[in-house]
Amino acid sequence: MAEADPLPGLDGARSEEAVPTLLAPWIPPGQTVGSLIGGTLVPGRGDEIELVDRSTGKPFLRYRDAGPEVAADAMTAAETGFREWTALSPSERGRRLWAVGAKVRAHAERLARLETLSAGKPIRDTRVEVAKVAEMMEYWAGWADKIHGDVIPVPTTHLNYTRREPYGPVVQITPWNVPIFTGGWQLAPALATGNAPVLKPSELTPLTSLVLGFLLVEAGIPANAVTILLGYGHTTGAAAISHKANRLVVFVGSPATGARIAEQAARNVIPCVLELGGKSANIVFEDADLRLASLGSQAAIFSAAGQSCVAGSRLLVHRPVYERMTALVAEGAGRIPVGDPRSEATQIGPIATARQFAQVDGMVQAGLSAGATALTGGGAPEGLSAPDGGFFFAPTVLSGVSPTMEIAQEEVFGPVLAALVFDDEDEAIALANDSRFGLAGAVWTRDPARAHRVAAQVEAGTFWINGYKTISTMSPFGGFKASGYGRSSGKEAIEAYTRTKSVWVETAANPATPFGYAPD
Ligand code: NAD
Asked: Which of 51, 254, 481 most suits a substitution to test ligand 1, by most atoms within 8 Å of the C-beta?
C-alpha cells in the first residue's frame, strides 16, 4: 500500500482528527478499535478506556477493555497459530519476518506520527524508534533458520542430541513509554524462534502495536500466530497469563507489577522474563571530558522526558568537579526545547498521564523538603502547565542529594536528575550499588583501566563507558537485582524464547537391557 502524502499529525494537528486518518488503512474511520485476533478486529467486552492527548490533556479515542472472554479467544487462536507458524520451514519464517521489516519501512512516517500523537513522544524520537523496529525484524529474520541444538558425547551407546523448541503461545505485556519499539523488541525474537506471541500493550498506548500487528499479518505471518490484545493488565493481561494455553510470560514494566505477574505465573509453573525499572548510576570522574559527560548525562536522563527504564537518574560526581559538572548539566538542561511533540524542534515532550505528572512532582517536592536544591526546573515549565497545557515537566537537576533520600533510591520516571558527590573510586562503586535496582549504569573517565574496573564492579545488566543509552536488539539487555531477570534481545533471547529437549537414540546392535535379560 503506497503512503498518501501529506500525512496529518505534525504541527498543530488535532489528535481526534489526525489519529483516525493515520489508522485508516487498517481501521476505517468509525470502526471500533479492538484486539487483533486471527487477522480481524474484535471489540472488547469490558470497561471503556479513554486515550488522552498528553500535550492537551484532552481525550481523543475510546475503546473497550478486551476482558477475560476475548483474552481466552486470543489464546485459543494462538494455539492454532502456533501450529500454522511451525508448519512452515524456519527459512520461510525468516523470509516472512524480513518482509515485515519492509512493511514497517513503507509505513514508517505514518507509524511515527501515530506514536507521536497517541504516546506524546517527540516526532524526532518516534522516527528513530520506528526505524529500529524494522531493523529488529531484519535481525531476527536472519536468526530464524540458525537455531539448533547440540550433539552431546554421552558415555553410553546412545546418540544424544538437543532440540531448541519454541514454547507455543507466549504472552507479552508491555508498558507505555516506548510502545512500538518495545512491541517490536519482543515480537521479533518470539516469532523468529517459532512462537505465537499474544502481545498486550499498555492500555494507554495500544495503537502503534495494533498497527504493527496488521503489518505482520500483511507480510505473511499467519493471522492466528500474532495477536494484539487491547485492554487493562489486571483484567485482560491477567486472564491471558493464567490461560491454560500460555507457556511463557515476558513482562516489561514496573517492578511492583512485575512481582505480581511472577507470582501469578509461578502458581501455574510458567516461566517468566521480567524487564523492570531502574535507578541507574551515571558516574563522572575528575579526569572525564566534562563537556561530553555533561551532554551524555543530559541525554541519559532528559530524553523521553525521563520516562525511560535505563534513565541515568543518579549522577555521581567526583568531588573536585562536582560544582562544575552539575552546573554544566543544569545549564544545558535549561536550554533543551520542551513542548509539543508534533513539532520537529521539540526534544522533550510531556509526561504520560496526569497521575504520572503528580508522582514526578511529588517526588521532586519531597526531595526539596529533604534538603536537596533545584539547580534548574522543579515543576511545570512556564506557559506549559498542567492540566490545560498538557502534562509537561521541566528538566530538573537536584543537587546535594544524599544516598538515603527517596529521590536517590526510587524510580521517578520523569526528567529529574539526582546529583550526589563521591571522593574516590571505591565510594563511587559503593554508591552505584547502593540501590535495589541494577538495570544500567555508566562511567565517564579518560583512564581506560579505571573504566573497565568500574564496569566490572557495578551491578547492572547494561553498562556504558563514556556514553549512555545505546541499546540494540543484537545485544543482551535486561536487569540485575530488582530490575528483573532473563534477556529478550541478542543471542540470549533464543534461550528465553525456546526450551530444550534432550533426545536419546539407541545405536547399539545389542543394547544392554535394564533388567539384565536379553530380548527375544
Ligand atoms: P506498569 O507495570 O504499570 O504496566 C506495564 C504493563 O503491565 C501494562 O501493559 C499494564 O496494563 C500491565 N499490567 C498491569 N497490571 C497487570 C496485571 N495484574 N497483570 C498483567 N498485566 C498487568 O508499568 P508502566 O507504568 O506502564 O511502565 C513504566 C515502568 O516500566 C517503569 O518502571 C519502567 O522502568 C518500566 N520499563 C522497563 C523496561 C525494561 O526493559 N527494563 C522498559 C520500559 C519500561
From this structure: 254
Q: Which residues contact 12 (CB under 8 A, 6 or more apart)?
A: 342
Could you give the angle at the alpha carbon of 178 between the alpha carbons of 218 and 199, nearest 5°? 50
- Give, for ligand 1, the residue of 173, 186, 471 to mutate: max count of ligand atoms closer than 8 Å to Cβ: 173
- pLDDT (tens, 9 = 90+) of the chain, 520 residues, equals 445 557 998 988 899 999 999 999 999 999 999 999 999 999 999 999 999 998 888 999 999 999 999 999 999 999 999 999 999 999 999 999 999 999 999 999 999 999 999 999 999 999 999 999 999 999 999 999 999 999 999 999 999 999 999 999 999 999 999 999 999 999 999 999 999 999 999 999 999 999 999 999 999 999 999 999 999 999 999 999 999 999 999 999 999 999 999 999 999 999 999 999 999 999 999 999 999 999 999 999 999 999 999 999 999 999 999 999 999 999 999 999 999 999 999 999 999 888 999 999 999 999 999 999 999 999 999 888 655 568 999 999 999 999 999 999 999 999 999 999 999 999 999 999 999 999 999 999 999 999 999 999 999 999 999 999 999 999 999 999 999 999 999 999 999 999 999 999 999 998 877 776 655 5
Atom of ligand 1 nearest to the CA of 231: 11
Q: β-strand 272-275 against 484-485: which pairing, if any?
A: antiparallel
* Ligand 1 centroid from CA 311, angstroms: 16
Facing residues of 160 across strands? 152, 504
Q: Which cell numbers in the block locate residue 275?
A: 524487564
